[in-house]
Amino acid sequence: MQSKHFISLTMILLLALFVRTHRLTELMSFVGDQAWYYLSARDAILHGNVPLVGITASRTWLHQGALWTYLLIPILGMAKFHPVAPALFTSVLGVMTVGCVYAVARRFFNERTGLVAAFLYATSPLVIVNDRLPYHTTLTPIITLGILYVLYKLIHETDHGRKKYMPLLVISLVLMYLANLGGIIMVYVVVSFIATGFFLHEKWARVFLNKKLILQSAVMAGILLIPTILYDVSHGFPQTVKFVSWMISRPFLVFVKQSTTSSWGDVIAFLGATLQKIIFYPSVWIAMVVFIGSGALLTRSFHWRSYKKPINMLTIFTGLTLLGVLINKTASNAYTQVLFPGVIILLAYVLANYIKGTMLWFILALLAFVNVYSLMGDNYGVMIPMKERLAKASEIAKEKSGYIIGGAGPGSEFRSFTMNTEYLTWWLGNEPATGSAQVIYIMSEKNVQLSVYRTVQK
After folding, report:
1. Which residue ranges traverse the bilayer (predicted)?
2. Listed residue (171, 173, 104, 96) closest to 127, CA to CA
3. How far, in Å, CA of 187 to CA of 48, rounded?
4. Less crowded by CB within 10 Å, the N or C end of the chain?
């Protein structure tokens, strides 16, 4: 790397770090589902209650993996349970992902595209919001990027060199399963590439017939899945057998209305809003023009038979991922974070190849300024910030007698609704009673207003 490129990358990484940590202690998001993992990690540290699975998924018969809890255990342990410590971890992880985006884009294309991709990823509004959020879904983009790179190496390496990448690909997919079930869309993407390889009689695809590599991959996956398997043995195998069956049948149920899926209109509108927040925060129309225009330019030289060419491979990878999000029909951020690396690197490729000279960097600087300025003005998209939650928790923690916390209004039907306040009051030194109590604090978040009501039972 030339010194000027090193300086440019360093500046991009510093910018990424700034926007991911700016006012983080005040503006961190901390909803109940996040606190579920905090409490799970706390109980593992203090009482040895190590969980085998994570929080209940949108399909209520299924649980997320426990990977995020296992990461929180050392983070909270070393930080004396400070609630912002995990957000600092995810922010730094986000900066590392910026560096990885640069490395992958540079490997696929060239230095210029790598720097553009890193800059776009560093300043993308939705990516910034995601990296500031200490939650299991925050791990999704870097794992997705790992899957993309390992798949690329497996396809392009020599016969001897590619053998080590099959187990790595399996490990990457298992890590995605343990981190975020919404990202398991990657399985369909990888299987599509493998099927294409066999259809075209590609030499690289034969690695999946190697019995030794299959055994190695199975053993490594089995080790990572030990907690999940232990849970499944006593719960009727929902995380493995039932989940695999659901994965196989899911594509065939795409046009069947289910209680856990959204309407096509809602999904398309949600995807439009997602692309807006990735590309251009103030306007969905400008974001869609950029997205569709970039797609049109990419299709000019695209042919699926030359899928191994980096730009075609990345286009197919991202296109299949987008198709998977559509087929899943769930309007949730947990399912769209797999799009971050592919969309941004493709956009970087188009900009780097079709806009020449200093005009490119002028446009990028203007785009970054508008995005970051708009995001900061919107408190990084956080409706009820940490400083407000902490202030309410501090009021409750002053209670002299025993108390319990209840919920009212939208969202209060879920057990996790009050867990954030429960964690904060515990951290402040006065946790709620485990049984009944005369004093009840009722939490409400109606109309994005955090309210606390104190009542006394007679």
Report:
1. 84-105, 112-129, 135-156, 168-201, 213-231, 279-299, 311-328, 334-352, 359-376
2. 96
3. 34
4. C
d(CA 393, CA 443): 10
Q: How far apart are the first and last CA of the chain?
A: 72
Which are the contacts of 233, defined by CB distance < 8 A and separation ≥ 6?
none
Task: Return the number of other C-beta atoms located less than 10 Å from residue 211's C-beta.
Answer: 7
Distance (Å, whole) CA 208 – CA 192: 13
Q: Which of 100, 46, 93 minimizes the C-alpha distance to 71? A: 93
Give per-residue pLDDT as tens, 334-372: 889 999 999 999 999 999 999 988 899 999 999 999 999
How long a stretch of residues is the chain? 458
Contact 64, 54 (CB under 8 A): yes
The fold for domain 386-456 equals THUMP fold (3.30.2300)
Distance (Å, whole) CA 368 – CA 101: 17
- 451-456, strands of its sheet edge to edge: 403-408, 439-444, 451-456
The helix/strand/coil state of 405 is strand
Listed in order, the ranges of the chain carrying CATH 3.30.2300 are: 386-456
Of 415, 413, 414, 424, the closest CA to residue 384 belongs to 424
What is the tens place of the pLDDT at every residue in 172-182? 999 999 999 99
Torsion of CA 177, 178, 183, 185, to 10 degrees: 0
